[in-house]
Amino acid sequence: LILCEKLYPVVIMHGINHGKDHTEKMKQWVLDSIPGVEVINCEVGQGKISTIFMNLMDQIDELSACINNDKRTKNGFVGLGVSQGGFLMRAYLQYYNNQKNPMKRFVGLAPPVGGYYCGNLSICNEFYLPEFINEIVHELVYSDFIQNLVGPAGYWRDPYQVENYVNSKIILTELDNLNYINMTLKDNFMSVDKIVLFGSEDDGLISPWCSTQFCQWAGDDNTTVSMENRPDYQEDRFGLKTMNTQGRILRLKGINHHQYNHDETFFKKNVVQYLKIYDE
């Protein structure tokens, strides 16, 4: 009796200021490394410009369309998100995993899952947000105008305006269940077998860098609070504590932000092993 085990396909979501052409190499590395796997390389809007100037919920829905319009993901898939693409994958997991094609595992390469903020004590990297956007964002970030205009505003967590941030009900506050506990979002978060997060203090782009592994800025943008010391972690508002206690949150050493798309050796040695799951 020969059992033909089928691999779950891998869905790749590119990062900010890029299109799917930027993750074509990554797609090839997966194909090279896992014989027989299918890889779907998704894109939001027109790629590069859309990652900044497209409402974040629209970006999440474009990712959802890419996943659900492909019949290969019907029984499940492994989500591989790069940078902002990792945030979109997290959002897909929590919003849609109970009703659409299900993610079986989430692998993030420097995803800002703990939020993003820069520009007071920390330096803003212009690659992430152009300077003129940075200046507008600080003043009006939680207004409907900016939330509809600038994608990253949906996870802009200003440590100097925490009350405004919580009350803003932007996407990150929803996913973290800060205002009330939405059990669907919590159950969906815990519906993957594991969440694998690569991050590095050499990241150079995500602010704070350890947001890639669920830390956040504390009272300013110079001091961080670890994942375990976040109040919403301790209250287990969205399932992070449960997952971590069960050993299902892996926080692994990454590399410089721009290297994820270029360092084939790192990718094949460290990332590939987490992309290989069989459909039982």
Automatic annotation (TrEMBL):
What are the protein's UniProt keywords?
Answer: Hydrolase
Q: Which organism is it from?
A: Trepomonas sp. PC1
Entry's Gene Ontology cellular component terms = lysosome
Note the Pfam families from the entry. Answer: Palm_thioest
Mind telling me which SUPFAM superfamilies this protein's record contains? alpha/beta-Hydrolases (SSF53474)
> GO molecular function terms here?
thiolester hydrolase activity
Q: Which protein are we looking at?
A: Palmitoyl-protein thioesterase
Q: Which domain of life is it from?
A: Eukaryota
Is Cytoplasm a UniProt keyword of this protein? no
User: Which InterPro entries does its entry note?
Assistant: AB_hydrolase_fold
